[in-house]
Design goal:
About 30% of the residues lie in helices and about 35% in strands. It is α+β, with helices and mostly antiparallel strands. A five-stranded mixed β-sheet has the order 1-5-4-3-2.
Amino acid sequence: MYKLLYHNRVAKFLKKLSPKEKKLVIEKLEFLQKDPFTQLLDIKKLTETTKNYRLRIRNMRVVFELNNKNKIIFIQNINFRGNVYN
């Protein structure tokens, strides 16, 4: 199992979500924590970087860095589709 680390802006974004959306995001992140290479999640590697990936959850995107050596997933940003890559 991987360890999840969050940037401060992730916590701020999660506070703004409705309880239903927040529950969905947390469930997906827990699933990601168990197996970041699963085919059941919509994960793609970002082309510009070597370590960054994105996870799609409805109209939200989660940008994270994967460190396989230390088994750490660092959640860099969560936001709606149009705002996350800025």
